[in-house]
Amino acid sequence: MVLGQQRYAGRQVPAEVDIAPLTGQNDIAAVARLYGAALNEEPWPADWPDFAGFDAGGVFLARDRGELVGFVVSFVRPQRPDQGYISVVATAPSYRRRGIATALIHSAVERLWRRGCQEVMIDVAAQNLPARGAYEQCGFRVAQELVCEEEEAGQ
Fold this sequence. Notes:
With 155 residues, this protein is of the alpha+beta class. 29% of the residues lie in helices and 23% in strands.
């Protein structure tokens, strides 16, 4: 999905949730754990910030009274400095449908605009309707549909 600057809808943050950038080692470990819990996958390894393309300034956290309840990871594509990319948006299951993912996405998008990006890309599985709906509410639109090898094998 893609978002162009002209389609950007602005930022709305739920009153009880604070959105702030990643700040240190404790945040890194908490993000790794929440990734696993939110996406029903193995937690990220502790060295996830060492992954290629990592930009600490593009990671925003959502906290409710100090508890990490969501995060977003974004960066400017090295091969396309006019294009930003949101690689992960995750919200704790008990905090979904409260606008937290939307607020996180807006934080990342605002930073990417400030860094000179003209558009922001995000990938989402076609069957992930809740995520697609959230992205569309933020102004994203489908730019291209791809078939993954896993999908082809299942058909």
